[in-house]
Design brief:
With 165 residues, the chain is mainly α. It has five helices and no strands.
């Protein structure tokens, strides 16, 4: 298989692996965020209940509601702390390095191809200028060098025909 195609496949697989890993991390972050937001809402409900019981002079229920509110707010902070500690694994770092190496190799191959195409273009320009110089060179009589050999050409053709017989 072509080496360039192998490099492209390696790059594509590395990208897919990193995409899956990133999607998994984002989904975990979303779940942790939803848990935190849920705990905050439940904590707010308990704060409201504590204020309500305080206004109705039910001290025991009020204290219980405030304790539950503080506990829910503390629980809301834990998922955010867990999210901050989540770092890329060693495998992800390795895949990122492989992706970077493959991308670098592919860019080198593309640069080589561009150089080869430029060299072919220069060769075609040189050939074109050589043909133009051949057809326009000489003393200017009869179309240059091609015009100068024009009268000799029929004699050469006749000699070649006689040489075959």
């Amino acid at each position: 298989m072509n080496e360039f195609i192998v490099k492209l496949r390696i790059l594509a697989r590395a990208e897919m692996t990193l995409f899956k890993s990133d999607a998994k991390r984002r989904s975990n972050d979303l779940v942790l965020t939803l848990v935190s937001v849920g705990c905050i809402f439940v904590g707010l409900v308990f704060v409201n209940m504590g204020v309500f019981y305080r206004l109705t002079e039910s001290a025991i229920e009020s204290q219980a509601a405030f304790i539950l509110a503080v506990a829910n707010f503390a629980l809301a902070v834990l998922p955010f702390l867990m999210r901050r500690r989540a770092k890329p694994t060693n495998e992800e770092q390795m895949v990122r390095e492989i992706r970077e190496m493959a991308a670098e190799e592919i860019s080198k191959d593309i640069a080589d191809i561009v150089d080869d195409v430029a060299a072919v273009g220069d060769g075609i320009k040189n050939l074109k200028s050589g043909i133009q110089s051949f057809t326009s060179a000489g003393n200017g009589v009869g179309g240059g060098a091609l015009g100068a050999i024009g009268p000799v050409l029929p004699v050469v053709i006749d000699l070649l025909k006689k040489g075959r017989k």
